[in-house]
Specification:
- The chain is α/β, with parallel strands linked by helices.
- The chain has two domains: 127 residues, Sandwich (Immunoglobulin-like); 368 residues, Alpha-Beta Barrel (TIM Barrel).
- It is built from ten helices and 24 strands.
- The strands form five sheets. The chain has a ten-stranded mixed β-sheet, with helices on one face.
- The chain is globular, with a radius of gyration of 23 Å.
- It starts with a strand and ends with a strand.
- 50% of the residues are buried.
- It binds alpha-L-arabinofuranose.
Length: 506
């Protein structure tokens, strides 16, 4: 065990824990919607075909917002195809995922599902093949009480009350050459500003998200944000960031340090947004919607879409099977999002069910079982217990070398403090591949505390994966080494591990 020290003080407030940090994403992609959240033949399905067992798992995961309907899918989507009687809806080619979209689920079904799942919708509009007209039409359909063509159609389709959707994404990853209707930053900035302006004429108090970069590795990163925000600054509230991580070429050390990339990505977008603010003499600040983040083995076969004449409905795509190390990285990425809570105002784990997801389902006609991936656990525990204010922590940790990020600290951590209840929660990862850490956690600034719960997620084999047959052999375990004396906690943190230590007033 190498010693590592963390000091936490109630004075070091970054900002509030934002419920929207624990958002997720449902795209019409693979089996996320069809045979994922929606499977009419399933034993737990309701009258509209939504699986209750999936909703129960989503509630246990603690998801707060759900981005919909894409993703790359949205850039070729006609939302009007998926309203009204299901038997009249056309099937369409989905160019993004080389699939057939049956349009059985559309905005009305999704909104009914959001209510059941108790999540806030975050709706994305198509700025790939469409534009301002479509943006205001779908907004009118969703948010106007009645008395117009689109709002009356919604009422005819069964939704008497308007949905009053607040958060809207102005397109998806428009910087990506793979995107249907891909645009330059200038082209996108113009159309996003025009769409936003028109949408605000309908509903002035919307929260609008402009597309930022699809990753920090994009050649256009930085310039894209500067150009897009220069065009849209007064019209939007947030700019998106997307990032996926994977262990490449057996380089576990770099993979475990993925939050270094996320930290830098966030810091760079904040700097760029603030530079545009200064240059334009704006008053408000633009914050970040990190509305796609996760581990994704995008280079492996399960991510490859069909080709040629094969245009299947809901094929199994992007069904990555996560290991323990992946879960440690997911937990660490949440630590990064939390410590930036002053500027990251929303985030979406991409995605929610079956597609690079914490929740997996078998189709009803193939057994219909549901199971949890390893990544479910750190997300669920963080979403449930991070409360109050996020506190910046001082970390004194052994370091090691990584190929991608140079010298990194083995220990990463963040804390939350609920001033009302007095609860303190520390989330920590040991990113070393082989070295345990002896944690010393200085909490003397909080007065008398006791340890309420300490759990660690790790395994002798960090490559252990859950499956439909076994998703319980490796679960977060009580960390019996955690004890507190005179305001200082000591605990052992094994290599490749994620931990949560909860404390309350003694
Ligand atoms: O989440 C999977 C895909 O990743 C999304 O459709 C797209 O926005 C991103 O490239």
């Amino acid at each position: 065990m190498l010693p590592a020290k963390v000091t936490v003080d109630p004075a070091f407030v970054v900002g509030p824990v934002r419920p929207r940090t624990f958002g997720s994403f449902v795209e019409h992609l693979g089996r996320c919607v069809y045979t994922g959240i929606h499977d009419p033949g399933h034993a737990t399905a309701d009258a509209t075909g939504f699986r209750q067992d999936v909703i129960d798992a989503i509630k246990e995961l603690g998801v707060t917002t759900v981005r919909y309907p894409g993703g790359n899918f949205v850039s070729g989507y006609n939302w009007e195809d998926a309203i009204g009687p299901v038997e009249d809806r056309p099937a369409r080619l989905d160019l993004a995922w080389h699939s057939t979209e049956p349009n059985t689920v559309g905005v009305d079904e999704f909104m009914a599902w959001c209510q059941k799942a108790d999540v806030e919708p975050m709706m994305a509009i198509n700025l790939g093949t469409r534009g301002v007209r479509e943006a205001i039409d779908i907004l009118e359909y969703c948010n106007i009480p009645g008395g117009t063509e689109w709002s009356d159609k919604r009422r005819t389709n069964g939704a008497e009350d308007p949905y009053r959707i607040k958060m809207w994404c102005l397109g998806n990853e428009m910087d990506g050459p793979w995107q249907t209707g891909h645009k330059t930053a200038e082209e996108y900035g113009r159309i996003a500003a025009e769409a936003a302006r028109a949408m605000r004429q309908v509903n002035p108090d919307l929260e609008l998200v402009a597309c930022g970069s699809s990753s920090r590795q994009m050649d256009t990163f930085g310039d894209w944000e500067r150009t897009v925000l220069t065009e849209t600054y007064e019209q939007v509230d947030l700019i998106s960031a997307h990032a996926y991580y994977a262990e490449m070429d057996g380089d576990l050390a770099s993979f475990l340090a993925s939050s270094e990339n996320m930290d830098r990505f966030i810091d760079d977008v904040v700097s760029t947004a603030d530079a545009v603010r200064a240059a334009g003499n704006h008053t408000k600040r633009i914050n970040i919607s990190f509305d796609e983040w996760n581990v994704w083995y995008a280079h492996l076969t399960p991510s490859a879409p069909p080709t040629g004449d094969d245009w299947p409905v809901a094929p199994a795509l992007l069904e990555d099977n996560y290991n323990v190390a992946d879960a440690v990285v997911v937990g660490n990425l949440l630590i990064s999002l939390l410590r930036h809570t002053d500027r990251v105002h929303a985030a979406s784990l991409a995605q929610l069910v079956n597609v690079i997801a914490p929740i997996m389902t078998e189709p009803a006609d193939q057994g219909g079982r549901i199971w949890k991936q390893t990544t479910f656990h750190p997300f669920a525990l963080t979403a449930r217990h991070a409360k109050g204010q996020v506190l910046r922590v001082a970390i004194d940790s052994p370091t090691h070398e990584t190929q991608q990020f140079g010298t990194v600290k083995a220990l990463d951590a963040v804390a939350t403090f609920d001033a009302e209840t007095g609860d303190v929660v520390v989330f920590a990862t040991n990113r070393s591949t082989d070295q345990g850490l002896g944690l010393e956690l200085d909490l003397r600034g909080f007065g008398d505390l006791k340890v309420v719960e300490a759990v660690t997620y790790s395994n002798d084999d960090p490559y252990w994966k859950a499956s439909v047959e076994d998703d319980t052999t490796v679960l977060p375990q009580v960390n019996a080494s955690a004890t507190i004396t005179d305001g200082t906690v000591t605990a052992d943190l094994p290599a490749v591990s994620w931990s949560m230590i909860r404390l309350a007033r003694a």
